[in-house]
Amino acid sequence: MPNPRIKNEEQYEALRDKGYSKEKAARIANTPDAGKKGGKAKPYEDWTKDELYAQAKNVGIEGRSKMKKKELIHALRNN
Fold it and tell me: What is the per-residue pLDDT for 70?
């Protein structure tokens, strides 16, 4: 049964099949441009700490205000 809160249901189901949690799959499937190929973003190591913090806030990472740059990168990659 389709969930009206999921913007890209096909991508959501594919992510769930790969073992992603419901929350993470929904977050990815609901991003603008969900399902489009990326590859244009610079690696996190090239981001400023402020940019990393903003991205961590955007995806809902807890405890981000106390994190150092390396910790933010780790949290973003492993969230």
Answer: 95
Domain boundaries, given as residue ranges, for the chain: 1-37, 41-79
Mean pLDDT across the chain: 84
Residue 41: both structure tokens together: 């973003």
Contact 75, 64 (CB under 8 A): yes
Furthest CA-CA distance within the chain: 42
Q: Which residues contact 27 (CB under 8 A, 6 or more apart)?
A: 59, 60
pLDDT class of 37 with cuts at 50, 70, 90: low
- Mean pLDDT is lowest, of 31-35, 50-54, 70-74, for 31-35
Burial profile 10-44: b = 16 or more Cβ within 10 angstroms, e = fewer:
ebbeebeeeebeeeebbbbbeeeeeeeeeeeeeeb
